[in-house]
Design a protein that fits this description.
It catalyses: uroporphyrinogen III + 4 H(+) = coproporphyrinogen III + 4 CO2. By secondary structure, the chain is α/β, with parallel strands linked by helices. It has 15 helices and 11 strands. The chain is globular and about 65 Å long.
């Protein structure tokens, strides 16, 4: 892992330092929209076979970087590895998404929860180290986890949900039990991300995928407070460099100011938020990541480029009139669709790099 970093643009943008262009990576950039990913997954036999094998995980993590000049790699794994290590029995059925054999819905199930031994997640840390070696300094590696609330949604529901009936029922009827679940999750996530940093991750991201399903008030108590608890425990330096912390809450635009005060260096935005207004509102006290609507990638290439420019123009010139810099990492407002044409991704990445350089030219 001692190879010098050849492209640190992503890390610099996270820390609001000068960059020659706006860096870009995509949530779920290693995934089913790429034929090479589908081929590797078929060889692995299953999603978990892919995610738990460091060689396969390394292979698919690097696949999008071999296609596109992206500015960061993200560990190939799943947000549900932590509750799986708690003994809940994670599985993936074809076409059905994740399922847990055990649901956490009563006092006995909650009382049995504890922060798992991180050795049960050794396969993740081995993959991180393997990927860092394979990258050989090409770009930084991002580690990640689901937020305490998002993990709790899956743990209580037993899988994905359309209405979050079980987890919200428990939250309102027995807030004491929900707070215990979230406390354990927060400490587990912090330990998990710190272990990823030790293994070689150069930035870490917390995905609060389902924070936006909560009511105002409940979001702060049951989601944001526990994301803040995670962020406060994370290592901020490793290998002589700052380790940026990213927090993304899908549907979190209503609480932008509060999210920005949670302790992350970078706040991820979904496509419902006006990037320029968000920057002005927070006066560049954090960097931003986002926020193109993923469905733009189904439009003709000329529209993909047009909409990409619109996002960059919304953020504006990174260097402010006072000489300070704002940080922007280009990304989608959520994960890339499995049906996305790969050639359209190439158009997006090229336009980000091309147009963002123009925004840095002297007026």
């Amino acid at each position: 892992m001692s190879a010098p970093l050849q492209n640190d643009t992503f890390l610099r943008a996270c820390l609001r330092q000068p960059t020659d262009y706006t860096p870009v990576w995509l949530m779920r950039q290693a995934g089913r929209y790429l034929k090479e990913y589908r081929d590797t997954r078929e060889r692995a036999g299953s999603f978990m076979g892919l995610a738990t094998n460091k060689d396969y995980a390394t292979e698919v993590t690097l696949q999008p970087l071999d296609r596109y000049p992206l500015d960061a790699a993200i560990l190939f794994s799943d947000i549900l590895t932590v509750p799986d290590a708690m003994g809940l029995g994670l599985s993936f059925a074809a076409g059905e998404g994740p399922k847990f054999a055990k649901q956490v819905r009563d006092e006995a199930a909650v009382a049995a929860l504890e922060v798992p031994d991180m050795e049960r997640l050794r396969y993740v840390f081995d993959a991180v180290t393997s990927i860092r070696h394979a990258l050989n300094g090409r770009v930084p590696l991002i580690g990640f986890s689901g937020s305490p609330w998002t993990l709790a949604c899956y743990m209580v529901e037993g899988g994905g949900s359309d209405d979050y009936r079980h987890v919200k029922s428990l939250m309102y009827a027995r807030p004491d039990l929900m707070h215990r679940i979230l406390s354990i999750n927060a400490d587990a996530v912090a330990a998990y991300l710190n272990a990823q940093i030790d293994a070689g991750a150069q930035a870490v991201m917390v995905f609060d995928s389902w924070g936006g399903v909560l009511a105002d008030g409940a979001f702060q108590r049951f989601s944001l407070d526990y994301s803040r608890r995670v962020l406060s425990q994370l290592k901020t330096e490793h290998e002589g460099r700052r380790v940026p912390r990213l927090l993304f809450t899908k549907g979190g635009g209503l609480w932008l100011d509060e999210i920005a005060d949670a302790g992350a260096d970078v706040v991820g935005l979904d496509w419902t938020v006006n990037l320029g207004q968000a920057r002005q509102r927070l006066n560049d006290r954090v960097a931003f990541q986002g926020n193109l609507d993923p469905n733009v990638l189904f439009a003709p290439p000329v529209v993909v480029r047009e909409q990409t420019r619109a996002v960059l123009d919304s953020f504006g010139r990174p260097q402010r009139a006072d000489g300070q810099w704002g940080g922007h990492i280009f990304n989608l407002g959520h994960g890339i669709s499995q049906f996305t044409p790969p050639d359209h991704v190439a158009e997006l990445v090229d336009e980000v790099h091309r147009h963002s350089r123009l925004l840095r030219q002297p007026v």
